[in-house]
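for the writeup, i need someone to sanity check this before i put it in the appendix. the sequnce is what the collaborator sent (i think, or maybe the updated version? ugh). structure was predicted straight from it, no edits. if anything looks off just tell me and ill rerun, i have time this weekend
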Amino acid sequence: MTGRLPRGARRHWADLQRPDHLVPPPVDPAAVEGLPEPARRWLGHAVPPGTPAWVSAELSMRGEIRLGGAWRPFSARQLITPGIGFVWAARTRVLGLPVAGYDRYGPGGGELRWRLLGLVPVLSAAGPDITRSAAGRLAGEAVVVPSACPAAAWSEGPVPDTAVMTWVLDGEREDALIRVDPDGRLRELSMQRWGDPDGTGYGRHPFGVAFSEEADLAGVRVATVLRAGWAWGTDRQAEGEFFRARIEGVRFR
């Protein structure tokens, strides 16, 4: 599945990829029993009994991303292994011209690489701040692989129907608050993510994701329609929204 990826992303994708033929044993019910009730409710809904304890997923998605003040359609592929790393490779157009590249996190840190026409660099970034921001992204996006989430540390949320999922990545604690419907559907995720959304310097800023639909994909109930952005939960949330997507396919590993 790496043939159409940007060249620079192929090695990182291969580093995370697990063989298709390795099917893990079912999720251990004991791994879920001690979690906060909203987390148990979500995982009981998303991961039916007997579901293999998948630790990774390959996703395909389409949507819109806001670049330069305009919403632009994109298509993307992602490989994500919660607690370990991800590669998100996408294609869009700016002024009618194709732009392709990837964001990643894993061994060696975080990185962004985007090119116009496959030749002209338009965004290249790495370093401690990029790594820390990408780690926060991985911590939040773990919810697309529900069967891997019992491996996180969990604690009670501040209000009913919420729980806090915690991953420690590169020595930094990343907390993601999930909100779950009474029927177990995942509705929202919020966190204080490292970033520089206003161009005023890096720090922890409110970030969140809203989920509006779900689907049974390969036997796992996955939240498939989402919108995400900075300034989550503030009066600038609409202004901070920059990502809208629908997950169209999942292959668990």
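The first strand starts at residue 57 and ends at 67. The chain has five helices and 13 strands.
thx in advance!!
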